[in-house]
């Protein structure tokens, strides 16, 4: 029987709910639609706590989103909503709403196209439906079922009476009931009208702000007031404005609306419109549609044009608004595109409800199209007499159309088409074209239409963003436009700017701000033909400052968890710590900042602190929190310390009694409980391994602030203890004894290493400690090790001892910006270059002062030669000038691949003479690029059968040293052919980068953050580093190294944003050697092999050119040398090369070979018309060159000798000859006066029937 009663009770309750519990206003309605999200809102007649939306591509759904509890609108209406995210653009979804016991039917919605998509969008506009009947509005909404627009824009006056007694009924009958046919799937985006305020004594639109979930003013994705907002749909940006004096009080207008009648350009809405439109243009939005309630232009007699819109017309025109729709007057009017003559003086102003000095309007095809669309059902306004407050139109402008009315008013104002119809406007926008139609609801006839193509307008835009290296907008940048027009804008926090410009003119855009440099410095646009986007990256170079302080309550007790907001030129939020402290660091000089503290139930004195033109640290910027009047509250605070007075941190202090919570003592041992109402409380401190006295403190009752509520902690004997141990070794891995190690923190003591370098601290209780090594004549890597909370035995806590003046010793830290990935040092002057995570290459002088910087690709490796910088940029390699970063050449392209002329993961690289060697990591190979043949036809590939993820390559002498990251190996290949040679070796962890010093020692940076040193045979001879952190000698994600002429090692310490410099092994001057190398080729660049190369002077030796014509003399001491080539029947230019006081490697020391032909002349080959035999002669030895030629028919034959300047030197033949082959004409290397000519290149030219050719000949003495 009990079971039956229970079942019956459940059935009864369900029946009660089914009768009284329902969705109001015919189900849910959608809002805040984007390409990836939507808000589903609904109203219920009781409070609902469990809200869900099921959604998916079909009516089976598949996903569920939980929403928050709703809020009350009035006695029997509650508002609920849920936001769905991570949706796909241009996609239809099914959904249903579940609220407690209630489940809706199945509905659908459609997401907007992706931002900047040029897909078709359809926008319906109407408004002013308020009235005693909802007939017209209901009819128009039903029409939208078949019209199916993407969004409906409502220009305000949604109801006759938005507030006061009976207003809920107006909202139901005049708005929510008519829209129920479409609101569940189409967003009706409203702007607020004057009737939304009507009926409330305080003139506040309470129902409007609670019925709708609309975007926030800052477009953050949070719920906003609905007063003003904007959104994107494909290539269209829509902005909804709270028009001046929308009916609310000045307080409401000042908070949300504007231009607020009195303010114009000084109001918050003016600045918001400017910021919003500039950002839309900077994003590349092609179309801008605006809506507001009050008329801009109006010649209907019932409602004067409230020309507060004129106060922001400059923004509409500057940022290229296409259409602006409004209501208030209950009729239809469309104006041709117009602009104010903004330069008219004096300009307009507002006073006492009237606009004065309104400038004239003029037709302009690139102007704004203003449309009055108050057509949704409010009583019609029938008069069309001229309105005295409407601005005068300038006559002419070339505008004519038969579609416009021929009324008297229209004759004076040939710019509008009025109509009394109820109905709507529809825009269909696709790409550059907008099709406009106005439709009346009596027969759904189109009574006004136009087609507007933006591609045909002369008005275009130049827009973009000014951002820092972290892609955050930079405010306060003056962006100046010069050239075809002069204009200037100052960016706000989003960094956006936009200029309206005309086609056919040239412009220059230049950003400026004190203490900033910009990349690029400016941008020119010659003979502009279309919209242009140009972004700038700003780098701050000035000083940085701090704003900090402490927040206490009125009793002087520190307040933790107070939210402190920084706004202005930087936006940050922080909360006070357990000591009541807050701090904002890294603030730029000259900036304007506002600091505001907030905490529930508190006010603060002062309310805020303002800083303009910040030029110093602002410390002790304290606030006092005052509890909002109510029941008295109190605090309990104090310290937990050792008997020595040292702070005991990490103690959990529990508060029990009237309220229950916990606090943890800070590093100073302090704790505090605040905002406690009168009652009984007990506090109890607890920490494992400790006895704390007293065990607790009780307050019965608490009715005054209790400060100095202190406790004493004592470590319990037998509690767990821990140890810290490790070794101190030299760079050569030998233990170093007698190193002193200081332990500080919870326990203070010292220890020292034994003969093996071992040390140990034992018996340590849980706590914070620091260990610091020291020994006269040594530095250490790392400088110390910190343990914030020791609760385990910490072993292998090793240090590397670096003897003063030895390799590995820290030298200095140098400037780097943007998180450096690699560093290269110019051997000629000590300047250094970095490529960075933010895709910028920086140039610094040897002291660390920045010289210049420029944007690169995704460069992760750089290398230098005498004139240029080379960067490995993922899918390409770029060659830049050192001075300003001009791109000279590029190998590869935007798309990666494995082809001969492609890259995939181009990283480290090195340059040597005529070639650049690149670690093409993802293709597991080294690419050899020819600097003399940019076509890529001379490129070659090395190591593709043995390498796995090569990260870097370094050339030294005739060899390449390659970091094989995957195999943890250093590969050694010949630089000419890529052949493997001895001296390869494994590394202790994956190698990242490597360099080779002048002594042949190899320095390898590894993923373990060590720098290992190896000799030329691959034997490890030293190491340092290995400790992660920000102290001297520590690294954090170090990724590249470089070397200077003194063998100092430069480390790109990425996450620490710096370059650290360490000593390498000393340059051994006595054994410093050099090389001389080059090629021998003929005049056609064909290599000459087996040429004997003889070097004499300080040392003598022979070498022979290989099949590539290459030779090299290595290991040459500084001195004087001469190199002479030799080969039988051959001559060379030059005949030799001399080097005085050789002090550097000399590459590209090339010779050209000329082959002597036997004096016995062979027959002239059939394919030749002219040939020289013995084309390298010495007149001193009576040698001659023979000129053989063939002519096909008789005629005049001239064979002359010229020098390289074209001067005639001698004539060999000048006569008529018959057809045939001639092989007996010679030249003895003398001029026409019979004198021997100097050594050099000369030209023999033949002109004969069917023959006109030139050959080179060489005279060698």
Give structural notes.
This protein is mostly beta strands and 1261 residues long. It folds into nine domains: 1-111, Immunoglobulin-like, CATH 2.60.40; 115-456, 4-Layer Sandwich (Purple Acid Phosphatase, chain A, domain 2); 459-540, Carboxypeptidase-like, regulatory domain (Immunoglobulin-like, Sandwich), CATH 2.60.40.1120; 544-627, Sandwich (Immunoglobulin-like); 633-715, Immunoglobulins (Immunoglobulin-like); 722-803, Immunoglobulin-like (Sandwich), CATH 2.60.40.10; 810-1070, TolB, C-terminal domain (Neuraminidase, 6 Propeller), CATH 2.120.10.30; 1073-1155, Immunoglobulin-like; and more. The chain is 7% helix and 44% strand. The strands form 25 sheets. The chain has a seven-stranded mixed β-sheet, covered by helices on one side. It has a six-stranded mixed β-sheet with strand order 12-11-10-26-27-28. Strands 3, 4, 7, 8 and 9 form a five-stranded antiparallel β-sheet that branches. Helix 2 packs parallel to helix 3. It is flat and about 125 Å long. The N and C termini lie far apart (131 Å). Residues 1-21, 244-263, 298-308, 343-350 and 383-415 have low confidence and may be disordered.
């Amino acid at each position: 029987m009990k079971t039956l009663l229970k079942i019956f009770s459940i059935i009864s309750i369900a029946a009660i709910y089914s009768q009284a519990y329902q969705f109001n206003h015919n189900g849910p309605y959608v809002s805040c639609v984007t390409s990836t999200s939507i808000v589903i809102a609904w109203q219920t007649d009781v409070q609902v706590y469990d809200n869900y939306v099921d959604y998916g591509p079909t009516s089976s759904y598949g996903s569920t989103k939980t929403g928050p509890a709703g809020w009350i609108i009035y006695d029997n209406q509650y508002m609920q909503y849920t936001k769905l995210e991570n949706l796909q653009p241009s996609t239809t979804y099914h959904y249903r709403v579940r609220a407690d016991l209630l489940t809706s039917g199945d509905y659908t919605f459609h997401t907007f196209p992706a931002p900047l998509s040029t897909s078709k969008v359809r926008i319906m506009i109407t408004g002013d439906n308020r009235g005693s009947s909802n007939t017209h509005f209901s009819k128009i909404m039903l029409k939208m079922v078949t019209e199916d627009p993407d969004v409906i824009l409502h220009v305000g006056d949604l109801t006759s009476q938005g507030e006061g007694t009976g207003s809920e009924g107006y909202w139901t009958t005049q708005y929510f009931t008519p829209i129920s046919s479409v609101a569940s799937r189409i967003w009706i985006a409203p702007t607020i009208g004057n009737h939304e305020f009507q009926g409330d004594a305080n003139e506040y639109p309470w129902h409007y702000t609670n019925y709708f979930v609309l975007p926030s003013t800052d477009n953050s994705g949070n719920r906003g007031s609905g007063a003003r907002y904007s959104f994107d749909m494909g290539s269209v940006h829509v902005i909804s404005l709270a028009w001046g004096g929308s009916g609310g009080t000045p307080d409401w207008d000042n908070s949300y609306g504007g231009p607020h009648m009195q303010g114009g350009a000084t109001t918050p809405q003016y600045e918001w419109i400017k910021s919003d439109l500039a950002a839309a243009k900077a994003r590349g939005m092609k179309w801008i549609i605006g809506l507001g309630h009050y008329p801009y232009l109006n010649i209907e007699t019932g409602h004067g044009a409230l020309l507060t819109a004129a106060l922001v017309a400059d923004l509409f025109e500057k940022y290229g608004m296409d259409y602006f729709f409004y209501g208030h007057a209950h009729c239809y009017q469309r104006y041709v595109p117009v602009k104010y003559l903004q330069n008219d003086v004096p300009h307009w102003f507002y006073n006492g409800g009237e606009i004065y000095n309104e400038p004239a309007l003029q037709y302009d095809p690139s102007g704004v199209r203003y449309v009055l669309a108050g057509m949704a059902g409010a009583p019609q306004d029938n008069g069309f007499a001229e309105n005295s407050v409407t601005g005068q139109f300038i006559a002419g402008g070339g505008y004519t159309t038969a579609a416009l009315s021929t009324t008297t008013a229209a004759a004076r104002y040939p710019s509008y088409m009025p109509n009394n119809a109820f109905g709507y406007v529809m825009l269909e926008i696709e790409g550059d074209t907008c099709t406009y139609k106005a439709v009346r609801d009596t027969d759904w006839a189109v009574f006004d239409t136009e087609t507007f193509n933006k591609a045909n307008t002369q008005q275009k835009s130049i827009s973009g963003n000014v951002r820092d290296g972290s892609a955050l907008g930079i405010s306060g940048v003056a962006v100046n436009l010069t050239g075809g027009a002069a204009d200037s804008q100052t960016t706000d926090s989003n960094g956006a700017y936009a200029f309206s410009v005309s086609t056919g003119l040239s412009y220059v855009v230049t950003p400026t701000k004190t203490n900033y440099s910009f990349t690029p410095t400016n941008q020119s646009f010659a003979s502009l033909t279309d919209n242009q986007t140009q972004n700038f990256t700003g780098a701050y170079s000035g000083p940085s400052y701090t704003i900090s302080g402490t927040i206490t309550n009125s009793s002087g007790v520190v307040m933790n968890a107070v939210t402190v907001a920084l706004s202005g030129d930087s936006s940050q939020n922080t909360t006070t710590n357990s000591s009541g402290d807050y701090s904002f660091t890294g603030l730029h000089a000259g900036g304007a900042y506002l600091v505001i503290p907030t905490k529930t139930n508190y006010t603060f004195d002062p309310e805020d602190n303002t800083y303009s033109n910040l030029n110093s640290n602002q410390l002790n910027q304290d606030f006092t929190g005052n509890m909002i009047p109510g029941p008295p509250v109190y605090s309990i605070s104090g310290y937990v310390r050792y008997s020595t007075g040292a702070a005991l941190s990490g103690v959990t202090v529990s508060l029990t009694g009237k309220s229950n919570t916990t606090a943890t003592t800070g590093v100073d041992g302090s704790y505090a409980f605040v905002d406690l109402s009168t009652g009984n409380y007990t506090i109890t401190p607890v920490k494992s391994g400790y006895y704390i006295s007293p065990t607790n403190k009780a307050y019965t009752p608490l009715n005054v602030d209790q400060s100095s509520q202190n406790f004493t902690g004592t470590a319990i004997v037998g509690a767990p203890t821990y140890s810290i141990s490790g070794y101190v070794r030299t760079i050569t891995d030998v233990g170093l004894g007698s190193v002193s190690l200081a332990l500080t923190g919870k326990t203070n003591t010292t220890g020292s290493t034994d003969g093996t370098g071992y040390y140990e601290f034992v018996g340590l209780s849980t706590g914070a400690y620091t260990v610091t090594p020291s020994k006269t004549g040594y530095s250490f890597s790392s400088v110390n090790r910190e343990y914030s909370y020791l609760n385990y035995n910490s072993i292998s806590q090793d240090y590397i001892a670096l003897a003063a003046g030895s390799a590995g010793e820290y030298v200095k830290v140098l400037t780097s910006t943007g998180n450096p990935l690699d560093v290269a040092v110019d051997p000629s002057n000590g300047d250094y270059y970095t490529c960075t995570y933010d895709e910028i290459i920086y140039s610094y002088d040897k002291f660390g002062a920045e010289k210049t910087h420029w944007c690169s690709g995704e460069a992760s490796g750089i290398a230098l030669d005498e004139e240029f910088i080379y960067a490995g940029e993922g899918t390409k390699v770029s060659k830049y000038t050192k001075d300003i970063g001009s791109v000279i050449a590029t190998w590869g392209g935007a798309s990666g691949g494995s082809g001969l002329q492609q890259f995939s993961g181009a990283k480290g690289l090195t340059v040597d003479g005529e070639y650049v060697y690149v670690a093409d990591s993802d293709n597991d190979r080294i690419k050899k690029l020819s600097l003399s043949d940019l076509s890529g036809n001379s490129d070659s590939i090395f190591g593709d059968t043995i390498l796995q993820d090569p990260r870097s390559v370094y050339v030294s002498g005739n060899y390449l040293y390659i970091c094989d990251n995957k195999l943890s190996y250093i590969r050694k290949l010949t630089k000419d052919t890529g052949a493997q040679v001895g001296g390869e070796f494994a590394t202790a962890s994956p190698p990242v980068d490597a360099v080779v010093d002048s002594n042949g020692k190899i320095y390898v940076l590894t993923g373990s953050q060590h720098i290992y040193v190896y000799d030329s045979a691959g034997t490890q001879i030293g190491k340092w580093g290995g400790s992660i952190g920000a102290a001297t000698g520590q690294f954090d994600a170090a990724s590249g190294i470089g070397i200077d002429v003194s063998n100092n090692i430069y480390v790109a310490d990425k996450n620490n944003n710096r370059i650290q410099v360490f000593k390498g092994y000393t340059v051994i001057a006595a054994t410093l050697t050099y090389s001389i190398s080059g090629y021998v080729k003929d005049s056609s660049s064909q290599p000459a092999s087996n040429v004997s190369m003889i070097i004499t002077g300080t040392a003598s030796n022979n070498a022979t050119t290989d099949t590539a014509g290459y030779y090299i003399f290595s290991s040459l001491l500084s001195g004087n040398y001469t190199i002479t080539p030799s080969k039988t029947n051959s001559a060379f230019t030059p005949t030799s090369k001399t080097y005085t006081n050789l002090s550097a490697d000399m590459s590209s020391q090339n010779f050209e070979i000329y082959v002597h032909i036997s004096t016995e002349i062979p027959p002239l080959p059939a394919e030749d018309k002219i040939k020289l035999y013995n084309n390298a002669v010495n007149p001193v030895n009576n040698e001659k060159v023979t000129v053989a030629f063939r002519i096909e028919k008789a005629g005049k034959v001239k064979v002359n000798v010229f020098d390289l300047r074209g001067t005639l030197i001698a004539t060999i033949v000048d006569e008529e000859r018959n057809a045939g082959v001639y092989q007996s004409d010679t030249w003895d290397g003398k001029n026409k006066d019979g004198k021997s000519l100097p050594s050099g290149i000369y030209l023999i030219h033949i002109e004969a029937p069917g023959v006109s050719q030139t050959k080179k000949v060489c005279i060698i003495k």
